[in-house]
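User: Hey, quick favor. My workstation is busy. Could you predict this chain's structure for me?
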Amino acid sequence: MNNKLKRNIQKAFAAPEPNQQEKVRFLRSLPQPQIGMFRFILVQASYVRKSSRVLSCLILLLALFCAYSISENTLWVVSAFVPLLGLLAVTESTRSMAYGMSEFEMSTRFSLKSVVLARMSILGLINFVIIAFLTPMCCIGNDFSLLQTGMYLMVPYLLTVNFSLWIARRVNGKEAVYGCMCVAVIVSGINTGLHFVTDLIYQEIYTGWWLVLSVFLLIELAYEIHCMMKRTEEYTWNLSLTD
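Assistant: No problem, here it is.
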């Protein structure tokens, strides 16, 4: 390679001067492809694992089967599997932190906080649609109203999500996933056991208490999500100190 060609290459790929103003000017000169919020959400949705989608579809198929064959027990069978939806939502949303990929995702254009919030919103919306679809199906063969049935499905789901987020904030690595799995199994087991005391706690006079519990769990969920967002910010700050 002759000297003239070397000089031309150096001139074409000249680095900016080592000062803050030149750095900002150089970064602004780089092409930045535009991406809208809708496109961003679609991209994040594509990262949801196929196993999670398959399991969600299996729960729907199970509800259809129960509604057709054992209609009087559809609510109790489906409500025992609803905690799995909460488990999937939390483990998918916090997967990057659980498997040590947070630093990699922080190097992308969008912040880790935006990525985690987007995934939580996507999975939460999907699960809400699934539960809304399951609610009228679980009314078949029961004397419960639509509101009661919806709460009997939402409470196990919200309990699983709240406790799983609490664990995910305090436990690092794959141990957090195992802890979330234990929560889902325990909530599912308790919900199955409550089926045998239907006359005691599922009476219509206790509907108000179930409603209060549902609202409380929704508020607690908002608080847990807020704490999770703060944790991602602290994680970002801690990693920036190691640069």
